[in-house]
Specification:
- The protein is an alpha/beta fold and about 270 residues long.
- It has helices at about 5-10, 25-35, 40-50, 55-60, 65-85, 105-110, 120-130, 170-180, 230-240, and strands spanning about 15, 90-95, 110-120, 135-140, 150-160, 180-190, 210-215, 220-225, 240-250, 255-260.
- The chain has a 7-stranded mixed beta sheet with strand order 4-3-2-5-6-10-9, sandwiched between helices. A 3-stranded antiparallel beta sheet has the order 1-8-7.
- Strand 5, helix 8 (about 170-180) and strand 6 (about 180-190) form a beta-alpha-beta unit.
- Bound molecules: S-adenosylmethionine.
């Protein structure tokens, strides 16, 4: 998976343990990993995190910030889910970065069929086992390389756009456009920038475009995390021929629909 990145990103030590000072062995390890890209590290993180991923969603373990927080979090997720369900019937659905299936079941319930793509075999396996739904077809693919072979009426991505590096934003949306059937719609949901969303032992969030994430066992990974505000994202998409309507759920999430602006494809 060779990818071209900013030099500064490519040479950063991308993986290290946070438990204790750096040992000689650890420094040697980081040095020999330094030519790996942040996108490879990002995927490695999600592969390693697969079995603990849903703790984030359920606000358990390191994401537990109390009952009131959990109630609001789940209520806001429900708001996003309700907005998605207002687009039913979904028709032919493409889910990008499907993960462990937190949205795949919802999509499958309103779809003719779902093509669910992810680059982590571990998350696909959890998703497949959880859903056991013959209407869902899984594709193991790197979204930064993947090209669509079919068109879809609804393209969904949850908590994925924020993991697309800013310099790949344009290319990503071109791929989405290629995969969208005439009259098709895009729905996405993602994180607002709030420290309350992330694990209690994660560093303060910044606008740097990357964050350090830690697993339950202490392994740490630097990954992409670009935060958007609805207005800015709407404008970015409008400049690329998308008519987007983006809202927030209050504290934690933004969600939106996007369609091709009438003049964009003519
Ligand atoms: C934040 S999770 C979102 C999962 C799911 N959409 C959800 O809302 O729960 C990001 C997902 O992107 C996947 N991923 C990471 N890098 C990828 C890549 N290059 N191509 C495809 N999927 C990738 C990870 O395996 C992970 O499942």
């Amino acid at each position: 998976m060779g990818r071209c990145l900013h030099h500064s990103m490519a040479v950063r030590p991308l993986v290290r343990r946070t438990d204790g000072p750096p040992s000689a062995e650890r420094i040697a390890y980081t040095a020999c990993m330094s030519d790996e890209t942040i996108l490879d590290k990002q995927l490695a993180y999600y592969r390693a995190r697969a079995s603990e991923y849903d703790e984030w969603h359920r606000r358990e373990g390191r994401y537990d910030r109390g009952d009131e927080h959990r109630r609001q979090w789940l209520a806001e997720l429900d708001d996003a889910r309700e907005s998605l369900n207002r687009l039913r019937p979904f028709g032919r659905v493409l889910e990008l970065a499907c993960g462990t299936g937190l949205w795949t079941g919802e999509l499958a319930a309103g779809a003719d069929h779902v093509t669910a793509i992810d680059a982590a075999p571990e998350t696909i396996e959890i998703n497949r086992t959880k859903l056991a739904n013959p209407r869902v077809r899984y594709v193991l693919a790197d979204l930064f390389e993947w090209r669509p072979e079919e068109c879809y009426d609804l393209i969904f991505f949850g908590f994925w756009l924020s993991h697309v590096p800013a310099e790949r934003f344009e290319r990503f949306w071109s791929t989405v456009c290629e995969a969208l059937a005439p009259g098709g719609r895009v729905f996405f949901v993602d994180s607002l920038k709030t420290q309350q969303s992330t694990a209690t032992n994660h560093a303060a969030l910044t606008e740097a475009g990357t964050v350090e994430r830690v697993l339950n066992d202490g392994r740490a990974f630097r990954i992409v995390k670009v935060f958007y505000d609805p207005e800015r994202l709407t404008a970015c998409l409008a400049a690329r021929g998308w008519d987007a309507h983006i809202e927030t759920t209050g504290s934690f999430f933004l969600y939106g629909t996007a369609t091709r602006a009438p003049a964009a494809d003519s």
